[in-house]
Each structure stands twice: as C-alpha cells, then as structure tokens.
Amino acid sequence: MRDISDKIKTLRVATAQAILKASPETIMAIREHAIPKGDPLPVAKVAAIQAAKNCSQIIPYCHPMLVEFVGVDIQLHDHFIEVHVTVKAIYKTGVEMEALTGASAAVLTLYDMLKMLDEDMEIGRIRLLSKKGGKSDFKAGHDQIRKSLRTAVVVLSDSIAAGRKEDLSGRL
C-alpha cells in the first residue's frame, strides 16, 4: 500500500461509466417491469453504492476511506444499458477506484438479474470519465499557480511589539 500520510485532504470526485450490451427485448422487459427477479435498476443502484463504499475490501491496495457521496445514474438505450457512478470524498487520495468498482458492481448485478432472459449480454467498456481533487486540479505551471495565489501574514507578538525580540516569523 502506498504511504499517503504526508498528503493533505482535499475534495476528491470521480465519475466512472460501465456499459452492458443487451437485446432490445431485454431493454423492453426492464421498461415494462417484466423481469422475473424484480426491477433490476434499484438493485443495481444499491450494489453500486455498496461496492463504492467497500472498495478497499475488494481491491487490495485501495485505502479505506469515508465516502461522502455515491450517485448512480442508469440509462436504458435501445441496445445497451449505461451506468454512471460518481463518488465524492474529502480524503488524501482519489476516489477513481471507488467509482470504477461501483460501476462494475452495477453492471454485474444487472447481468445477474437479466441473464435468464438474454444469454448474449455482454459487459462492455468500463472506464473513468473524470476525476478532480488533489494535485490533478493544479495542471497549470507552477509559476501560473504562484501568480494566482494571494496571501497575507499577520504576526502578533507582545515581545516583538515591545522590542524585546526580533521578528523572525514575518520573513519566513
């Protein structure tokens, strides 16, 4: 496991996508609520949330973290189901793996609940769509970041004000 003890906590956000290719008949059966095991969409959403929250128990080198938000959006298309999972956390490392694990669990759950109707389903592309937080937010050059920062240092000290000590912290 990578040592992240020296990193600072920032808001991390990642969105992943997973695709499940299915027949138009299977998509229609979902729309008509005609799946023998029940409505697979809310079950897949819960599976995605559980997987994202428990990613470190599944992926060995992922750090355990408190996930602040998991959003799951499932869209039915004519020949496929598209799942987007967005994960947010304030932590020292990114949440890409949590989003990818959530999206994967969602399509695996859909596959499981639909396999009796469609033997030709195929889990397609699983990919990271976006990520924010940490050093990836600072893609501009170091000089550009430095120019955009504005700071002020106020030093309050009775002994320095009285002239008994030299102000060393102001220069730092």
Strand content: 25-35%
Low-confidence stretches: none
Strand numbers in spatial order across the main sheet: 2-3-1-4
Find the count of extended strands (DSSP E, 2+ residues). 4
The ordered string of helix (H) and strand (E) elements is EHHHEEHEHH
The structural class is alpha+beta
- Helix count equals 6
Largest sheet: 4 strands, antiparallel
Overall mean pLDDT: 90
Taking the alpha carbons of the first and last residues, their distance comes to: 35 Å
Shape: elongated
The share of residues in helices is: 25-40%
Instruction: Write down the Rg.
Output: 24 Å
Description:
With 172 residues, this protein is an alpha+beta fold. The chain has six helices and four strands, in the order βαααββαβαα. A four-stranded antiparallel beta sheet has the order 2-3-1-4. A hairpin with a 3-residue loop joins strand 2 (69-76) and strand 3 (80-91). The longest helix has 19 residues, at 96-114. The radius of gyration is 24 Å and the shape is elongated. The two termini are 35 Å apart. 30% of the residues are buried.
